[in-house]
Amino acid sequence: MGRLNLVVAVLLMLSAISLVTSRYQARQTFVELEQARTIARGHEVDWRQLQLERSELSRNARIDRIARERLQMVSIVPDRTAYINQAPSVPTVPQEGDRK
């Protein structure tokens, strides 16, 4: 009977140690999960900021302003537009007298 009590006591101690270890690992895993969620939220904020910057940088008004200021470009207006009319090129057939 004494040996049986000793074996049960040892098994009980091993079970308690196992329980404490598993609880500790669960807490550690939860802490890591919360840290990963915090990082993910930070990435989401960064992504939204980048999307906002991209939309701001691609606005037509900004592009027009930069083209005018930095490149000294002007808008197209009909009175400053030159149209070139080119006659369609028609292949000519050489005549017999044209040969050299």
UniProtKB/TrEMBL annotation:
Q: Does the keyword Cell membrane apply?
A: yes
Entry superkingdom: Bacteria
Task: Kindly give the membrane topology term recorded for this protein.
Answer: Single-pass type II membrane protein
Q: Does the keyword Transmembrane apply?
A: yes
Q: Which GO terms describe its cellular component?
A: cell division site; plasma membrane
Primary subcellular site in the record, as a coarse category? membrane
UniProt record, GO biological process? FtsZ-dependent cytokinesis
Q: Which UniProt keywords apply?
A: Cell cycle, Cell division, Cell inner membrane, Cell membrane, Membrane, Transmembrane, Transmembrane helix
Q: Name one Pfam family in it.
A: FtsL
Where it sits in the cell: the answer is:
Cell inner membrane; Cell membrane
Q: Which NCBIfam families match?
A: ftsL_broad
Per UniProt, subunit arrangement is: Part of a complex composed of FtsB, FtsL and FtsQ.
Give the record's family classification. Belongs to the FtsL family.
Q: What does this protein do?
A: Essential cell division protein. May link together the upstream cell division proteins, which are predominantly cytoplasmic, with the downstream cell division proteins, which are predominantly periplasmic.
Q: Which HAMAP family match?
A: FtsL
Q: What is this protein called?
A: Cell division protein FtsL
Gene source species:
Jezberella montanilacus
